Amino acid sequence: MVKARVMTAADLDRTLNRMARQIVEHLDPGPDSDALALIGLQSRGVVLATRLRDKIRQVDGIGLALGVLDTTLYRDDYRNRANRQPVRPTDVPFDVADRHVVLVDDVLYTGRTLRAALDALLDLGRPASVRFLVLIDRGHREIPVCADFVGRNVPTSRGEEIRVWLAEQDGEDGVWLITTDSERIETNGKIGGGID
Predict the structure, then answer these.
(1) Is 19 part of any domain?
(2) Domain for residue 23, yes or no?
(3) In-domain check, residue 5
(4) What pLDDT does 183 receive?
(5) The pLDDT of residue 162
(6) Which residues contact 122 (CB under 8 A, 6 or more apart)?
(7) Alpha-carbon torsion, ordered 21, 22, 25, 29, to 10 deg
(8) What total of structural domains would you count in the chain?
């Protein structure tokens, strides 16, 4: 059941514009844009990383490398999950060694996905540094991690979830706060949206 709409499409776009500027300002790729890369976590993190890359290219003329990382097999709860997610492609077509990497995801919750992402990334090489960018931080960390770039902090209870919809996957942009007594949400007659 939908409790509140947290972000509209316009809100989301403004937030990504701000976050693209933060990446450039804080990590300053300068003329050597090869030193910096964005890696989106499957699945919605990939869409967000692609949008951020495009915004940085459009505004600053900087072309950043883009990769895709799946953390499924690196999760500490993989074998215990009742509904196992399918393994999706990992595609990092560049050497991560000595690069400044920004991992991108849609929702930060317990921190376990980020921990898994770090393990998966380090299997590919040793980056110069790793930063984490997340659209929504909903709290309730179970391990000591935090995001370097946060679109919006949305305090939630354990009985609530954040649903992020992105047009490329869901047909429209938006972020909703839902109560978990319903596994599906309805907005404008549509049903869907995954939980990350």
Answers:
(1) yes
(2) yes
(3) no
(4) 41
(5) 97
(6) none
(7) -80
(8) 1
User: Is the full-model pTM beyond 0.85?
Assistant: yes
Q: Which tens digit of pLDDT belongs to each residue from 158-173?
A: 899 999 999 999 999 9
Residue with tokens 């960390």: 141
The verdict on residue 4 lying in a domain is no
DSSP state of 85: P
CATH number for position 22: 3.40.50.2020
Contact yes or no for 23/61 (Cβ under 8 A): no
pLDDT for res 86: 85
Which regions of the chain are under pLDDT 70? 31-32, 77-84, 181-196
Neighbouring C-alpha atoms within 13 Å toward the C-beta of 85: 17
Structure tokens at 90: 């990992």
Total residue count of the chain as it appears in this document: 196
Question: For the chain, how big is the Rg over CA atoms in Å?
Answer: 16
Q: How far is CA 32 from CA 35, 55, 63, 155, in A?
A: 6, 18, 10, 38
Angstrom distances, CA of residue 190 to CA of 13, 106, 119, 173: 21, 21, 36, 13
Domain range holding 66? 10-81+88-154
- Helix 9-27 with 44-60: angle, nearest 10 deg: 60
- Distance CA(100)–CA(144), nearest Å, equals 21
Q: What is the pLDDT of residue 186?
A: 45
